[in-house]
Amino acid sequence: MSETSLQSRFKFKLFSNVAAVLLGLITMAFVPRALGPENFGKFEFITNNFKLIFDTLTLQVPVAFFNWVSRKGHKEDTDVASGVTLHFSLIAAALFAVFIAGTILTGTHSLLWPGIDVPFLWEALLFTLVVFLYQLLVFLADGKSLTVGLERIRLLQNLLKAAILLGLVFAGVMNLHSYFFGQVAVVALSVLLSALWLRKQSACSERTLAVWRFTRSEIRDYWSFAWHYAKPLTILMAGGFLFLYFDRWFLQLIGGSVQQGYFGLSDRLGAIAFVFTSAMTPLLTREFAFAHEERNMERLVRLFERIKLFLFIAAMISCFMSAQSATIIKLVGGEKFKGAVLPIAIMALYPIHQTFGQLSGALLMATGQTRLYSKIGLSMLVGSVPITYFLLAPATYAVPGLGLGAGGLALKMVVVQLFATNIQLFCNTRYLKISYLKWLGFQFCMIPLVYLAAQAVSLLADEILKRFFAELSHDVVANGIAFVGSGLAYCVLLLVLVYLLPAIAGLSRKDVDLNLLSRLGR
């Protein structure tokens, strides 16, 4: 399998992502039930919060590292870039640990992280660090077109994680501490295996760990690039930190860990629709960066047009999950999570425009338009704060709100994402000199049509279940069969729609008769 083929790398990354989703669904059917909404909410709140803090502290240098490797990794040594980025990030981690210790000593940790006990803060820091180190290795592998080998390790990681978590559940020892440590152990093993494999592929060496051996000029040259590239993104993160922090913190303050658990579950399940896009994003970013480096505008336009197919796939999965939110809760969370039905129905739609945000944003990042990217992101973050407050704040507050809890936060995220990604899209179409109105028309024709198809199939399935199998309406097996049957019928309906109207998937009549995936690498 060619490591330099976009098609082969996408296929294997997609296979790995699908396997991760299937294994994740199996564990999600047991883990949230075992932890309960409160503990699950604590995990979601503190890990998302710590990731935000750590991403801010690293000043977006890892993102610059990925762009540098994508552009120059095929022709230049990457040890200096890898070493500088790694050691800079470890210093940031040490500062974060000192900050946590300071909040504990002063007692302010209860204000910053309401309802979170001190031991969970250190466990979350460890989890955040090992996940970050693994992501850094993924950046190196994707940037040097070594995706396939690392995806094999990720597949092993997901198998081990599922086995360990299910083992903890069935052994009756699943709690928040064991949930943290089980995942940390698996990711740490993945970091070790990935580093050894990349060393074997000559993507890195022991020199990476010995940053003191680098010359000043080597460090200066890379850091000059990294800082120039990352500075606008750093401004975005620094300026937007409080706004991003506010969302989850306010939900934790108002609704507590239970509402946080509802939102966390909806966020996890909604991410399933993002599986195809997340497989393509780093690969497409690399291709955008390479085409930009070669000044190949025709290839940039051709790559950008492929986003339509991924938008359709994301909409296809998102709309079905939104329509099936009540059934999903019966299968995954159980009665304890019935309050998550509405958040799931809303949050399942988030990946549709998250697809634009990732893939359209990838073009801005790859072509060095980080200043524009940061301006768009920061303006959306500032504007989102009053929306969050209005949707979440109780009616009893001095400035009353709607008190919608997790559902309100999900609604805010979908609305803001819709506006932000269309602004990005407008800027990209101007840069590529293609029509924005055609892209806008594509969204507002395709998405409602797909959603109507999902609702029609779901309503039909519910009616059949109520009329002929009323006594089994709450049975897990019966709902599972209904869910799978609805999914199959929905896929058939969409295949017919794509055949009749290929344009809804961003395809031509000629494309319908060809293997779609085989065209992605051309």
TrEMBL record:
Spans through the membrane: 12-32, 52-69, 81-104, 124-143, 155-174, 180-198, 233-251, 271-289, 309-329, 341-364, 376-397, 409-427, 439-461, 481-501
InterPro entries according to UniProt: Poly_Biosynth_Transport
Membrane topology according to the record: Multi-pass membrane protein
Residue runs in coiled coils: none
Compartments, record wording: Cell membrane
Keywords, ordered alphabetically: Cell membrane, Membrane, Transmembrane, Transmembrane helix
Record's protein name: Oligosaccharide flippase family protein
Lineage: Bacteria, Pseudomonadati, Thermodesulfobacteriota, Desulfuromonadia, Geobacterales
